[in-house]
Amino acid sequence: MEEEIRCIGCGARIQAEDKEALGFLPASALKKRLENDEDIYCQRCFRLRHYNEIVPTSLTDDDFLRLLNEIGQEDALIVNVVDIFDFNGSIIPGLHRLTGGNDVLLVANKKDVLPHSLKAGKLKAWLKGEASEHGLKPVDILVTSAKNKDDVSELMEAIEHYRHGRDVYVVGVTNVGKSTLINAIIKNVTGSQDVITTSRFPGTTLDKIEIPLDDDSQLIDTPGIIHRGQMAHYLDKKDLDLVSPKKEIKPRTFQLNPEQTLFLGGLARFDFISGEKQGMTAFFENGLSIHRTKLAGADDFYEKHAGELLQPVVEGRKLLRKEFSIKEKSDIVYSGLGWVRVSGPAVVAAWLPEGVDLVVRKALI
Ligand code: GDP
């Protein structure tokens, strides 16, 4: 059996397989450090030590539940970061029950990708409604872009306002931009080096990152949980980059007749089955190619062009079909990929790789 090597920073077992899991260190770096008889830190602790920079990590569901329970015992402010573009994929089931009655500040990140015509008031009202449907009653909702310094300052002011001298725990599923936000907070709060300390959640091997806020309270970053319904977990980095919006999405409207199909790259499909001819608007990364074809020939079209004209695809996963009867203006949401707005009434079908979430909601825009 191979000897187990542990990170001297966080105690995680060193592994070279999963970049996002605890203890990751590329095999080449491990070899070099062993040869030079250097201390073995995982990549995350190394970056933390040398650059005061945190790297995203993720946890198993059990560890995450344990962590939330732990937080539930504390008197603290919980900051829950979600991705506006993938609200359903970023909500933490049961968060309100697990945080033990602590105040939750909801931070909806990646606002830069939504069409700028969407008014802030309308967006907040929509977020409040969505949060409430998941049983979450946040003390306030902030809309941010982690890349925007002003938003980060505003977030820090809100945290200061709502924490009433308490510690602050930042929680979120992976890929919502939590690390990007925390790194911006570190720069905002300190501007200086060596301010992050790490410590363990009692009874676990999980490290938490503590950023001092004042003499006796801190902001604590927690590892993210993987929400398996997110598209992100079925794509490699290159393909994920291809489908993740990097700037404002330009809505694309198609005047569709019934029995027409749209292919969203090779990842998803939208069928207009019956209803009056109408405009269907696609909200996806601007670089994702959308192909229109006849419903009757769509299966053959996919068979023939998947992986070439229709890019990217999730290898080895079939597209599953769900049919919906739409009465009012609604979004068919392909979790983490985007959505198609249907004016209705219409009968439509949506296809997605097995395992990725699909939701219908009242139109956001
Ligand atoms: P974490 O897993 O929640 O810690 O997420 P990361 O901070 O690693 O971010 C996940 C991805 O989202 C990265 O590709 C980031 O560049 C991107 N991202 C983070 N914040 C924003 C944002 O405000 N706007 C946009 N457009 N992308 C963001």
Automatic annotation (TrEMBL):
<dbReference type="InterPro" id="IPR027417">
    <property type="entry name" value="P-loop_NTPase"/>
</dbReference>
<dbReference type="InterPro" id="IPR019988">
    <property type="entry name" value="GTP-bd_ribosome_bgen_YqeH"/>
</dbReference>
<protein>
    <submittedName>
        <fullName>GTPase</fullName>
    </submittedName>
</protein>
<dbReference type="Pfam" id="PF01926">
    <property type="entry name" value="MMR_HSR1"/>
</dbReference>
<dbReference type="InterPro" id="IPR006073">
    <property type="entry name" value="GTP-bd"/>
</dbReference>
<dbReference type="InterPro" id="IPR050896">
    <property type="entry name" value="Mito_lipid_metab_GTPase"/>
</dbReference>
<feature type="domain" description="CP-type G">
    <location>
        <begin position="65"/>
        <end position="228"/>
    </location>
</feature>
<dbReference type="InterPro" id="IPR048422">
    <property type="entry name" value="NOA1/YqeH-like_C"/>
</dbReference>
<dbReference type="InterPro" id="IPR030378">
    <property type="entry name" value="G_CP_dom"/>
</dbReference>
<dbReference type="GO" id="GO:0005525">
    <property type="term" value="F:GTP binding"/>
</dbReference>
<dbReference type="Pfam" id="PF21516">
    <property type="entry name" value="YqeH-like_C"/>
</dbReference>
